[in-house]
């Protein structure tokens, strides 16, 4: 019997959090090996396990996988979260890439110099309400189904709901004009596997703060 996937990253969100969300939504238990010191980081690189000298890295099914999108695609394919045919997969990819564009802006926000943060937040809010969320609201309205693609849960829904939580952390009012997205968030959040992941004490990570950011900077020197 194969062991649990093992996730190698620092103890924070970053680019690993979407992987945690997807595994959790699929009902897959996983272990985490946190990179806590510069020595941990040096050892992981010197062992030759990081193809491009970068994390995230996930040990799964006898592989040591790197590159976030490759890992996500593998998990989605394995657990039937990637559509029923090539056309559905293309739609899922398009939606996921749009989600990733906005998510990337939010991920790097803690790294923003203090004198630029207000402007960055304003840009995120503008892109959220004027560019990205209207697309997904329109998709749901156009077909009247419960999920973005094929009326079944896919990785696009999971990534989008993760993003909606981050958007609410910035400003809860940003979702006010998107009732179908709020309904999707509720629907996915109430799935038993996701509901478990959202409970206190799960492997879901909190927003990065100044202390955790400084720790990460010391590790990845």
TrEMBL record:
GO terms for molecular function: glutathione transferase activity. Gene3D superfamilies: 1.20.1050.10, Glutaredoxin. Its EC number is 2.5.1.18. SUPFAM superfamilies: GST C-terminal domain-like, Thioredoxin-like. It comes from the Eukaryota. Keywords: Transferase. One of its GO terms (biological process) is glutathione metabolic process. Residues 85-208 form the GST C-terminal domain. Pfam families: GST_C, GST_N. PANTHER family: GLUTATHIONE S-TRANSFERASE, GLUTATHIONE S-TRANSFERASE A1. Belongs to the GST superfamily. Alpha family. This is Glutathione S-transferase.
């Amino acid at each position: 019997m194969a062991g649990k996937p093992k996730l190698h990253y620092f103890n924070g969100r970053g680019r690993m959090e979407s992987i945690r969300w997807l595994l959790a939504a699929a009902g897959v238990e996983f272990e985490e090996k946190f990179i806590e010191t510069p020595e941990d980081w040096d050892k992981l690189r010197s062992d030759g396990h990081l193809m491009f000298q970068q994390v995230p890295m996930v040990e799964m099914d006898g592989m040591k996988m790197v590159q976030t999108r490759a890992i996500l695609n593998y998990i989605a394919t394995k657990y039937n979260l990637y559509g029923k045919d090539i056309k559905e997969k293309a739609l899922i990819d398009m939606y996921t890439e749009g989600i990733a564009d906005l998510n990337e802006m939010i991920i790097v926000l803690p790294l923003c110099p203090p004198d630029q943060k207000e402007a960055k937040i304003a840009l995120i809010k503008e892109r959220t309400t004027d560019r990205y969320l209207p697309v997904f609201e329109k998709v749901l309205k156009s077909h009247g189904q419960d999920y973005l693609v094929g009326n079944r849960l896919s990785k696009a829904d999971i990534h989008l709901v993760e993003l909606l939580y981050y958007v609410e952390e910035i400003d809860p009012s940003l979702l006010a004009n998107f009732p179908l997205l709020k309904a999707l968030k509720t629907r996915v959040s109430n799935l038993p596997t996701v509901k478990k992941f959202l409970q206190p004490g799960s492997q879901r990570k909190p927003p990065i703060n100044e202390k955790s950011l400084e720790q990460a900077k010391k590790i990845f020197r």
